[in-house]
Design brief:
This protein has about 160 residues and is α+β, with helices and mostly antiparallel strands. The protein is about 30% helix and about 35% strand. It has 3 helices and 10 strands, in the order ββββαβαβββββα. The strands form 3 sheets. It has a 6-stranded antiparallel β-sheet with strand order 5-10-6-7-8-9. It has a two-stranded antiparallel sheet with strand order 1-4.
């Protein structure tokens, strides 16, 4: 039986007592839980949710060319933009909007900010990267298969999933 979890709880006030079985503490509970099919099945949705969270990392900034900041904000209504100013500095604005016809306003690091449209030289929006997503999926799959192969090759017990019995 493979031990998955070993839980020991005890009252901190209880003294440690020597007995035939070794050191025990009155009031100590020892629980040993074996890895079950049900516990594996419960972990799968958690792993899937974590992988889905990583998909957001498969985005990159796409520079919008041939369109003015005014047209982009008015027509596409992006949730976030990265703008490059004339001095070369970059700024990310959440919930960007055009104000007074000549400024781009939004939240930068949760603080209200605005930049003159004449000072904006480049505007970029986040785009989903299919190639990055496929690469991440294949890379994680290769690691999982590699770990499974190593575990199977190192198992000497002759029983279990790797033994073919």
């Amino acid at each position: 039986m493979a031990i998955e979890h070993l839980v020991i709880s005890r009252d901190e006030e209880a003294p440690v007592v020597a007995s035939e079985d070794g050191l025990t503490v009155p009031g100590t509970r020892l629980q040993v839980r074996a890895l079950t099919r049900q516990s594996i099945m419960l972990r799968r949705p958690i792993v899937c949710m974590l992988l889905l969270c990583y998909l957001a990392a498969c985005t990159s900034w796409h520079v919008e060319e041939g369109v003015s900041p005014l047209q982009l904000i008015s027509n596409q209504h992006p949730h976030v933009v990265r703008l490059t100013r004339a001095d070369g500095s970059r700024m990310v604005l959440d919930q960007p909007r055009i104000v007074a016809g000549d400024s781009l306003a939004g939240a930068h690091d949760k603080v209200a900010s605005s930049v003159a449209l004449s000072d904006v030289t480049q505007l970029a929006t986040p785009k989903f990267g299919a190639v990055k997503t496929i690469g991440l999926f294949l890379g994680l799959s290769a690691v999982a298969v590699g770990i499974a192969v190593i575990v199977c090759l190192n198992g000497n017990s002759g029983t279990g999933a790797c033994s073919g019995n």
